[in-house]
Give the backbone structure.
Amino acid sequence: MSLEVPAHSNHAGKPASRIRQKNEQAILRAAEDEFARHGYKGTSMNTIAASAGLPKANLHYYFTNKLGLYIAVLSNILELWDSTFNALTAEDDPAVALARYIRTKMEFSRRQPQASRIFAMEIISGGECLTEYFSQDYRAWFSGRAAVFQAWIDAGKMDPIDPVHLIFLLWGSTQHYADFATQICRVTGRTRLTRQDMEEAGTNLIHIILKGCGIKPAQ
Amino acid sequence: MSLEVPAHSNHAGKPASRIRQKNEQAILRAAEDEFARHGYKGTSMNTIAASAGLPKANLHYYFTNKLGLYIAVLSNILELWDSTFNALTAEDDPAVALARYIRTKMEFSRRQPQASRIFAMEIISGGECLTEYFSQDYRAWFSGRAAVFQAWIDAGKMDPIDPVHLIFLLWGSTQHYADFATQICRVTGRTRLTRQDMEEAGTNLIHIILKGCGIKPAQ
DNA sequence: GTCTATACGTTGATAGAC
DNA sequence: GTCTATCAACGTATAGAC
């Protein structure tokens, strides 16, 4: 369910040296920023190198090529991504669990908007780099997640809402605050979305979605 | 509130010839497809020309340069975009008007997903080409739209939900079905989203959002 | 109005000295 | 491991014949 990141010169067995770890981190961080702002094609190795404070040739020493670096960045993102969704279980109280999930997603949109944007651009562009990620395993995992909502429905804890569409509503509404932050700021006359803005947005989403699904507040 | 499209060789006064109209349309259509699939930087004039069935130099004859062509495409999209939102008025019954708006947006996501994707990528990339679009006028227009929801709240027709966040929920949840269609298909094992899929998604959104906002169904 | 040929910058990637 | 120099491919854009 995760991406195969092509190994380069770091041969198996040898532990990563301290300098290697430091440089790889710097490159990955710089790449994440640039890819989020300009997309895959719009980002040049030159820019990433400058942002990481290293000569361009070093990037090719640590990563096979541009695509390899991009896949590595994408892979890091996906790990964080899925883990939050696994916290939901059929035994949870829907009001508590859903509210917590929305808060977590909003927190993610606030603290790692670049990650959300890279994923969004990749999907919009056809998501060919995610083909192996969206494997049979992933669909099974997704079904399992949808089953949690179905269990809540069967237990009479919420309205009979198609779990699949509910999941897309949760993803779409929370990620919107990361991906479209620019529009939100321009339209509301802000320079950036503050922590408080995001918390208010989250409270709002929780109100509408929980009530909309017929979930009674936790006692 | 709209974009200034740089005029090129079509001097004012002269009506567009039939051949010019035909070619410009072909170029714009091809450009829309390519920009949606690969973003601004990821699209080459060469590809657009091939897709439009014209030699590359012709694009530069009809449009000043690549950016001019891109702005023209973007401009076409924005016109369609805003008009649907203007249909809402304070006198409307919220249940009817909101449901109709969600249907319209979903219809838009179904029929013109490329437009939605180009807009999304532009915003994610910082939206510098939309600076003049997001002018003072636009913010005034947006406030006016938010005021409609506030009027409904004041009239006791819906819960006191921040209109601004409600608008972002409407936009985010409906556009998600255009922008993330690839993910939705991969995850649910479809090859494409059918008309029926989109209608079910719309019905679902209407149920959750209307109930979530405390809007009673129209009698 | 149309299209071939080409100028010229930028890109990803590598060779090879250190 | 690091970095300068360089290459081939591709990008936008234009000149100029038709």
Observations:
- Residues 87-212 of chain A form a domain with the Tetracycline Repressor; domain 2 fold (CATH 1.10.357.10).
- Residues 44-46, 56-57, 60, 65-66 of chain A lie near DNA strand C (CB under 10 Å from a C1').
